[in-house]
Amino acid sequence: MKAILACALVASACEPLDPAATADPSNCEGCHPEQTREWAGSMHAYASEDPVFVAMNARGQRETGGQLGTFCVRCHAPQPEVRGVGCVACHQVKTIEATHNGGLTWDRGGPMRGGLRDPEATAAHDSSYSELVDGSKPSSSQMCGACHDVVLPNGLAIEATFAEWNASVFADNLSCSGCHMFTAGPRRHDHSFPGIDVATTPWPGIAEQRALIARDLRPAILTKLCVAPMGGGVEVSITLDNAQVGHAFPSGTTHARRVRVELEADGLVVGEPWILRSWFRRGTEEVQFAWDADAIDSELLMPSTSLDPAQPGYYHARTRTVRLTGRPAAIRLGVQIQPIGTDILEDLVKSGDLDPAVIAASTTHTLDAAAREWRAADGFGCVPSR
Question: What single string gives the DSSP state of each residue in 166-189?
Fold first, then answer.
């Protein structure tokens, strides 16, 4: 009854909606203003308008002679009449046919399904409970996996976020929405869906998205910086540990992601950066885009897959060692992540598919909590995670 009274304050907000009106998120705002506002600033809302997606899809269609078809669109715009991934894309899911490539079916015209077992009545639409959108159920992650795992027709998995989570220790107790949809108040969850991607064109809520991403990246990985004496210089060991993320780091479109781990000695960058990402291959040749690939190589930080110290999946930290000549007074470790590598954006600009302004508007996130600094004055040893 409270929901109906709240809706009544907004003109026509709770009149019965036909299927087409239900599919339009603007018609949800009257009864669900906060959820709609959060969604409107999210990458779900941006999914079909993202210029990088538009450029990738256009180039893929051209270079495959149209054989790419709806491969990308089925997740970026599952209901073509609605921009992006709208409310009904999740709340009217009927069945999960496959946990990849948009393998969902919808009950268009059916009830709006939610995670509340006792939904309040509304005149706008019927409502019902569904385990598929109940974030307290790890099984609800299968619906997320339907779009966040992508497999090419040749069987090559080019995105595997759901598969990574499903093999991790988190899968028994924590769903995707348990991390990506924080509880935002009684009987509701935040619909901002922060990941690491940020809009590159004018879009509502960009500042809020960046703040949420910074919040979620803060505890993402643990780092350790160790410095030991070596003849004529020092030996520096960098350790990265994906201890608190429920999937690989980075995850998602890992062929586009760029995690850059860099050392500075006395303020100057030294050595080659450690880059975490994936690479597409066709045979032995590296290729840039998925439609050309028949293999993928990756250097990622994988999640914990076992809580048993006797099992290999318990240990998943990665260490890299660098030798530096001389004895610096200070050595600093820094970690950054680009959602989409500049090299990919430049390639799309060169082909005429992407506006160069997108490069200038793209975001690089700095993981401040992962930074470490060793000072010679404190003696040799390790600077661990805080």
Answer: HTSGGGGT--HHHHHS-EEETTEE
